[in-house]
UniProtKB/TrEMBL annotation, chains A, C:
Organism, scientific name: Sporosarcina globispora
InterPro entries per record: ThiF/MoeB/HesA, ThiF_NAD_FAD-bd, Ubiquitin-activating_enz
GO cellular component: cytosol
Official protein name in the record: Thiamine biosynthesis protein MoeB
Annotated NCBIfam families: PRK12475.1
Pfam families: ThiF
TrEMBL record, chains B, D:
The keyword Nucleotide-binding is annotated on this UniProt entry: yes
Family in the record: Belongs to the MoaD family.
InterPro entries per UniProt: Beta-grasp_dom_sf (IPR012675), MOCS2A (IPR044672), Mopterin_synth/thiamin_S_b (IPR016155), ThiS/MoaD-like (IPR003749)
Coiled coil: none
Lineage: Bacteria, Bacillati, Bacillota, Bacilli, Bacillales
Subunit structure: Heterotetramer of 2 MoaD subunits and 2 MoaE subunits. Forms a stable heterotetrameric complex of 2 MoaD and 2 MoeB during adenylation of MoaD by MoeB. During catalysis MoaD shuttles between the two heterotetrameric complexes.
Protein species of origin: Sporosarcina globispora
GO function terms (MF aspect): nucleotide binding
General function of this protein: Involved in sulfur transfer in the conversion of molybdopterin precursor Z to molybdopterin.
Protein's name according to its UniProt entry: Molybdopterin synthase sulfur carrier subunit
A GO term from the CC aspect: molybdopterin adenylyltransferase complex
Lineage: superkingdom: Bacteria
A biological process term (GO) from this entry: Mo-molybdopterin cofactor biosynthetic process
Record Pfam families: ThiS (PF02597)
Pathway linked to the protein: Cofactor biosynthesis; molybdopterin biosynthesis
């Protein structure tokens, strides 16, 4: 064991034996934004054996305020986040195997990546992907750690198949219109706080200190000085379609996925959410305006100009993204607005 | 009596971190509806905890229980 | 206002006005180790106007597990931490003025650096320096934010002259023999958690959201799943020598400082703590052995071999550090063991 | 009765996160001495909180109070 991890092996619950275990593990990090770059850095510094990181976006100037792996040059060069993350992680350590994938974390892609993975760290910005992670976690018996934040508020929960309830037991349905960092803002310390919780849980799991895993959903607000642990053990639902006795893994089924289609000859992608929504335009419009976007609307649709593209949003959640033929880019724009 | 706590942006909508009301006998769903009207909140997909334990919509609140409302968050 | 801080200005308590305030402020960060590099990175990413960072150490391999500004090459080149921090911070942002100082944060040096500073972020590893920061905070009316961690445990408190109690009201005396990262180990998430709290408090102060400042000492343990806020407002002591009516700023007085002397012709530095201690050898010896140091002892002294130096520790806290003539290095070695 | 909580390494020394004892009428200093003997703890420079508020060594514990012991930490 190298001197490098001496302060971590000196921590009694890990020790040299725990460090060997961490060293033998493979972690899949879904998303390389704020949470993803924080989680990836901590896993790399802690000496995990292998990291796989998937992300579909590129580094923008507005990311630099909170996404810790990225430097100014990455934003100037519009580097894909997964590639920029890999570059910095390799400067930090040569001892960890880093595999970065520039692409959309679709359920199919995640199933493929899950092979041989010991832990999935959620670092996404939307519940559609989280519900797919949740089903994959159950299907392949891989623990995952939920993390999310907006403003000064954040939360995390550890899901261990066979032991804890799953996200589908808890939420039953995907929350509609969660606040996102693009609509509610975000301060960097809230990111760090979620990463601290996710990474601590990850070290417990990787070092096989199962008895120390937090059996609660933790929520906190650093500005309002709030912190609470909500116990969830009673929530486990035998009838849950993701983790119960008769499972269908609903979020791996095509009918429950977001549909995106390139509209031929129009340089436009249509996005259709898995279930019809009922959108309140005024709230979204106001948030987007305060962010500096050009927003126009009428009772039937909302039109938003953003970075060369135009998003037209209908009341039922359907949207047209004009100015692109790239499905992943269009989905990314949609989920940044809609959560 | 019951203490009802509001997390994150719900706190700002209510204007206070917690309010004290007698809501014993009500279900979480009934309390959500009551609060939604009183404070103009959207509580459909907000999680509820009773005495720091997750509570479903049909759970009945007892006298002395502390209820907390926590919005799930998607950003990251 | 640049697009760069758009997610932070979108956070309502900061907004564009708060961002302008953050932009106009100067933060002094004392220490560029684990907490220091985390705090410096968050302040730089958040767009503080100017950062001054002081540190006396150089980057070692065992730092890489948790000190987020440093890369493998910094450890190979034994870069001074302050210089390595400045280099990475300048890659992250060209918009923040960074001043790095390689040197010992003595009370005299801190008094000199405090001029024009709006906030001091404690990122040290010992209470002697913290008590000097505390006195300087009161003398020059500058808020400071205490932060510390060991193992999976950490704590933070915000001290605002004229409003909150000070550290001397609370502790009355310097705690003897606190656990340090060199004796108790440390996991990186505990560092991140303290940084999250310190940086959130910093953003409140820099953006002048005084009413949101946490009026409590927060403590947490990420492994044992503990978190508590301890209110401190009643502790404020009118008779306190640091912040009371008749102040002497005791920790700026030479008689209360650690004495370090080069012993002529012997390549040895003697360290004498401000007050006599009563040291229990067995505990320290065990911790140091588990860290891989060569430790020998008898009832009167403890001898520790470390990285080319030998530290001989006496029961009253006095120590001889053989193999160096550098006062700052000797103090650093002493405080890493003794806290 | 009183709930007495132990943070960080104190918890491991005691073996439990909290113990329940009747210590009302005692000062914090007296309680520290009692616990120091019972669990072989060093509590000289450990901070105490009574009902989540900092308590000095001469504060007298009342029935029903929750006492927490939190060690100050110097690492960084």
């Amino acid at each position: 064991m190298s001197e490098r991890y001496s302060r971590q092996t000196l921590f009694p619950p890990i020790g040299k034996e725990g460090q060997e275990k961490i060293r033998s593990k493979h972690v899949l990090i879904v998303g390389a934004g704020a949470l993803g770059s924080g989680n990836a850095e901590l896993m790399a510094r802690s000496g995990a054996g292998k990291l796989t990181i998937i992300d579909r976006d590129y580094v923008e100037e507005s990311n630099l305020q909170r996404q810790q792996l990225f430097a100014e040059s990455d934003a100037l060069e519009k580097m894909p986040k997964a590639a920029a993350a890999e570059k910095r992680l390799k400067q930090i350590t040569s001892e960890v195997e880093i595999r970065s994938i520039i692409g959309d974390a679709t359920p199919e892609k995640l199933e493929e990546l899950a092979e041989g993975v010991d832990l999935i760290l959620d670092s996404t910005d939307n519940f559609e992907t989280r519900m797919a992670i949740n089903d994959i976690s159950q299907k392949f018996d891989i623990p995952w750690i939920y993390g999310a934040c907006v403003g000064s508020f954040g939360m995390s929960m550890t899901i261990i198949p066979g032991k804890t309830p799953c996200m589908n037991c808890l939420l039953k349905k995907i929350p509609i219109q969660g606040m996102t960092c693009d609509t509610g803002g975000i301060i960097a310390p809230a990111v760090q706080m979620v990463v601290a919780h996710q990474a601590a849980e990850a070290l417990k799991i990787l070092s096989e200190n199962w008895e120390s895993v937090r059996n609660a959903m933790v929520s906190f607000d650093l500005w309002r000085n709030q912190y609470t642990n909500m116990k969830v053990s009673k929530v486990k639902d035998e009838g849950c379609l993701s983790c119960g006795k008769e499972r269908t893994y609903p979020y791996l089924q095509p009918e429950n996925m977001m549909k995106s289609t390139v509209l031929c000859g129009r340089d436009t992608v249509q996005i259709r959410p898995p279930k019809e929504l009922e959108i309140e335009y005024t709230e979204i419009a106001q948030q987007l305006k305060s962010l500096g976007y050009q927003v126009k609307g009428n009772p039937y649709l909302l039109s938003v100009e953003m970075e060369g593209q135009r998003l037209v949003l209908f009341k039922d959640g359907r949207a047209l993204i004009h100015g692109t033929k790239d499905l992943a880019q269009a989905k990314s724009i949609y989920q940044r607005i809609m959560g | 009596m019951n203490k009802i706590m509001f997390f994150a942006h719900l706190r700002d909508s209510v204007g206070e971190e917690s309010v004290t009301k007698d809501v014993s006998g009500k279900t979480i769903a009934e309390l959500k509806q009551m609060l939604a009207e009183e404070y103009e909140l959207k509580l459909d997909s907000v999680m509820a905890a009773v005495n720091e334990e997750f509570a479903s919509d049909d759970e009945v609140i007892q006298d002395g229980d502390t209820v907390a409302f926590i919005p799930p968050v998607s950003g990251g």
